[in-house]
Amino acid sequence: MTPGTPVALGLPELPVRPIAERRLARRIEVGPVAVGGGAPVSVQSMTTTRTSDIGATLQQIAELTASGCQIA
Predict the structure, then answer these.
(1) pTM metric for this prediction
(2) What are the CA-CA distances from residue 70 to residues 10, 64, 67 (Å)?
(3) What are phi and psi of 43, to 5 degrees?
């Protein structure tokens, strides 16, 4: 047996399911970030601080931005 050769386990083969066609989506702008309509996938997250704690919330947003988050 050579590396990369599939091993037969005696299990029945599953039928190949057709992939559904994707629906067209409208492109919208969330601030400067485009979402939908063929736009690249954007990274989004939420903060876990109390929004009344402005300093901690801004710190978390800065950390999310530094790690690549585009929508907070």
Answers:
(1) 0.61
(2) 47, 8, 9
(3) -95, 130
